[in-house]
Design brief:
Blueprint: H1 14-29, E1 49-50, E2 63-64, E3 67-72, H2 87-96, E4 101-106, E5 110-111, H3 118-133, E6 136-137, H4 151-164
Parallel strand pairs: 1-6
Antiparallel strand pairs: 2-5, 3-4
Length: 165
């Protein structure tokens, strides 16, 4: 990674976030450089949904070239359920699978609208990716795989459910 132009950072460090934002802006401004590949979900899930995007990728400006990727599990499943399988079991399953097949769709470039903030822009890109991949849109991030759900979020969902009923 050191021989290429990777931008590494520690997500929990606020100063790293500012440095990454600066490096990305500089990279975008230099038209001689290749586009940056960003995975704004910050994690992988089970191929059925698109989770909340981290807004930092959408704050720096520039053109976004969305790509929808959906794995076909018929020959081998690329998804690692870390609560169910150890890393060694996962690696064994991948290495002994017939093939890892995925569909890749390159969507039209998208640019942030003037009246749009980073969160709305991220949600618009996420919706386009989900629609093309035939996946549902989730309003929460991948941290829920590893953390307990906040009580305030549960209460909010319960209130919405009560309004429906």
């Amino acid at each position: 990674m050191q021989t290429t132009q990777h931008v590494l950072f520690e997500r929990s460090e606020m100063k790293d976030r500012h440095l990454v934002r600066k490096k990305i802006r500089e990279h975008i401004a230099d038209k001689a450089k290749l586009p940056i590949l960003i995975f704004p979900e910050g994690t992988c899930i089970n191929n059925t949904s698109v989770m909340m995007f981290k807004k930092g990728s959408f704050e720096v400006g520039g053109t976004i070239h969305p790509v929808a990727i959906k794995y076909d599990p018929r020959f081998g499943d690329a998804f690692w359920n870390s609560t169910k399988y150890s890393m060694m079991t996962y690696v064994f399953n991948v290495m002994t699978s017939w093939a890892i097949v995925c569909n890749v769709w390159y969507l039209p470039p998208m640019v942030k609208k003037e009246e749009e903030d980073a969160v709305h822009f991220a949600n618009r890109v996420k919706a386009a990716i989900a629609a093309r991949g035939g996946m549902s849109v989730l309003p929460w991030d991948g941290g829920l795989k590893r953390k307990k759900v906040k009580e305030s979020f549960k209460e909010e969902q319960q209130k919405k459910y009560c309004q429906i009923v």
